[in-house]
Task: inverse folding
């Protein structure tokens, strides 16, 4: 059961909408199911021969606004309190009497009209659909004082959780006050009128997060915002220091023709300038370990993704430790890494990666305070990916994208476990949602390189296949073999072990090292995870090239497959993302 609270200043206008045909969905049989005294006039049921619904609507407005007019200047400017209460899909349908009881519980819990208080605010509950009601109240009490509505949304949420339990409804996750603010109804209507896929608030929140991903200093952050095509207004103190910032979409204007500005703190709690400064204070690593064994034939996006994969592996290990502050900080860094990957991803995976980044955004915030843990490695990985530009999604670019996504699935699942252990239901759910989107993106990115590897594994001489199959059975735990027996066969893993051996490594030793890196329980396909770990450890190309008819074992440790890939994957020019217009995004799920 989901409550949604807003405030306004026009009682009559809201009632006209509630009793009207509707704009987002059809309103049918609009009528009252409850009111402050049980005798409020009902435009939906006043159907006598001499009745006029417009007259009845005016009488209802006058009754609700009576105390507002009596209070005069002491009444709040936004005196209309509006709360919609909707059941979850699959819940049973309530009768009018049950909805009346629910409305009374909500107005009591929020302080609108406490039980037994004769001076409570006047309110009504309107039903114009099977699955929800609208509660409308005017915020002046009978003693002409304003009601105390501190934390009214949290109180409504808590009451809805109790109603769900008592009435056997679907139990939704309780909020904890750390979520970003949802777009208002007016913002959603405006997006529909102007043909946008989402409200401006949501577009701006994503653009700001992407501008922050891997930024090294405040000046760079603001530069990225402007390069993304956003309007930026920075508030300065008399000393010249920046106090805050506002952003607006080009062309998004109010009724007076002025830009619609959003402060960073209103986009999300962690996007205020003070919170951003705390994150930027950690900086990024100035020097990074050599990636790819000094190779120059792989593109910058491929090299940066390979480096980020190792950093993500270490982050998953940190999340598995029972350390609140360290884990909370790492989650923020993972969010930046996902934002960086989403904005530079190949076209084939862009939609799913964007959805994964948006889902995980909720998992980066909780009431666990992020200590000043060292997140420079994650922020540096995000920075490198952004600066390397967009990956083409073919050849080594596509292979290393699959390599990174395979690891990020396990990282987001580790985040889900971390949140679940601390009772963060919404954040754990968001982490699992991100993992599902990443799995879909991984399947898209890995389809070609894994097909090539399976072909190469099947093309090996039978004696070589048996040797590597014996190695797999000797090293991989028996339960993992059973769990993976109906999954992808071991052809790709066998091909990778053969290439590991040709590169001068001991296959059994390296396979054991790949297994010991982290748990494999959450892997959807153990073979795939081990393939990518082995290829990264042994510095094998992520995209191995086409399989010959029959592979013969060379006399040297040189990987001839790698040489063929080198010729096809010359370095690409780094392309700077988002030069003029905020990136178009798919419809939110």
Result:
């Amino acid at each position: 059961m989901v409550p949604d609270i807003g405030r306004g200043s026009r009682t009559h206008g809201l009632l006209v909408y509630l009793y009207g045909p509707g704009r987002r969905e059809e309103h049918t049989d609009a009528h009252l199911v409850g009111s402050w005294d049980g005798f409020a006039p009902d435009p939906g049921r006043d159907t006598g021969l001499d009745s006029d619904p417009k007259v009845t609507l005016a009488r209802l407005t006058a009754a609700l606004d009576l105390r507002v007019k009596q209070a005069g200047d002491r009444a709040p400017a936004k005196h209309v309190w509006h709360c919609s209460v909707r059941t979850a899909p699959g819940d049973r349908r309530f009768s009018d009497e049950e909805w009346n009881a629910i409305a009374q519980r909500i107005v009591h819990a929020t302080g609108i009209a406490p039980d037994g208080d004769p001076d409570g605010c006047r309110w009504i509950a309107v039903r114009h659909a099977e699955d929800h009601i609208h509660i409308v109240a005017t915020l002046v009490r009978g003693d002409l004082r304003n009601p105390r509505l501190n934390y009214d949304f949290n109180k409504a949420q808590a009451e809805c959780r109790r109603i769900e339990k008592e009435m056997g409804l679907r139990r939704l996750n309780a909020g904890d006050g750390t979520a970003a603010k949802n777009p208002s109804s007016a913002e959603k209507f405006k997006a529909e009128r102007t043909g946008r896929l989402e409200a401006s608030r949501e577009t701006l929140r994503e653009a700001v997060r992407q501008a922050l991903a891997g930024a090294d200093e405040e000046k760079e952050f603001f530069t990225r915002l402007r390069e993304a095509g956003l309007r930026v207004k920075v508030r300065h103190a008399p000393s010249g220091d920046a106090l805050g910032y506002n952003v607006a979409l080009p062309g998004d204007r109010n009724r007076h023709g002025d830009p619609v500005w959003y402060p960073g703190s209103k986009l999300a709690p962690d996007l205020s300038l003070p919170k951003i400064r705390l994150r930027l204070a950690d900086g990024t690593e100035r020097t990074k370990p050599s990636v790819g064994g000094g190779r120059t034939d792989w593109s910058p996006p491929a090299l940066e993704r390979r480096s980020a994969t190792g950093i993500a592996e270490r982050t998953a290990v940190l999340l598995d430790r029972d350390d609140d502050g360290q884990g909370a900080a790492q989650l923020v860094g993972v969010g930046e890494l996902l934002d960086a990957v989403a904005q530079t991803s190949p076209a084939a995976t862009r939609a799913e990666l964007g959805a994964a980044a948006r889902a995980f955004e909720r998992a980066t915030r909780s009431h666990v305070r992020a200590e000043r843990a060292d997140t420079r490695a994650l922020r540096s990985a995000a920075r490198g990916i952004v600066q390397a530009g967009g990956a083409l999604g073919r050849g080594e670019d596509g292979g290393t994208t699959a390599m990174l996504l395979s690891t990020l699935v396990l990282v987001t699942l580790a985040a889900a476990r971390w949140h679940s252990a601390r009772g963060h239901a919404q954040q754990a759910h968001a982490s699992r949602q991100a993992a599902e989107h990443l799995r879909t993106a991984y399947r898209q990115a890995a389809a070609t390189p894994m097909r090539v590897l399976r072909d190469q594994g099947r093309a090996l001489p039978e004696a070589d296949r048996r040797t590597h199959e014996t190695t797999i059975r000797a090293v991989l735990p028996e339960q993992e073999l059973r769990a993976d027996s109906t999954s992808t066969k071991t052809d790709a893993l066998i091909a990778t072990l053969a290439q590991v051996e040709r590169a001068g490594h001991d296959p059994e030793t390296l396979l054991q090292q790949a297994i010991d890196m982290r748990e494999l329980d959450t892997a959807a396909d153990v073979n795939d995870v081990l393939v990518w770990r082995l290829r990264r450890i042994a510095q094998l190309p992520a995209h191995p090239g086409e399989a010959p008819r029959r592979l013969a074992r060379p006399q040297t440790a040189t990987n001839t497959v790698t040489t063929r890939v080198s010729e096809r994957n010359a370095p690409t020019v780094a392309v700077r993302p988002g030069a003029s217009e905020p990136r178009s995004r798919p419809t939110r799920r």
Notes: The chain has 21 helices and eight strands.
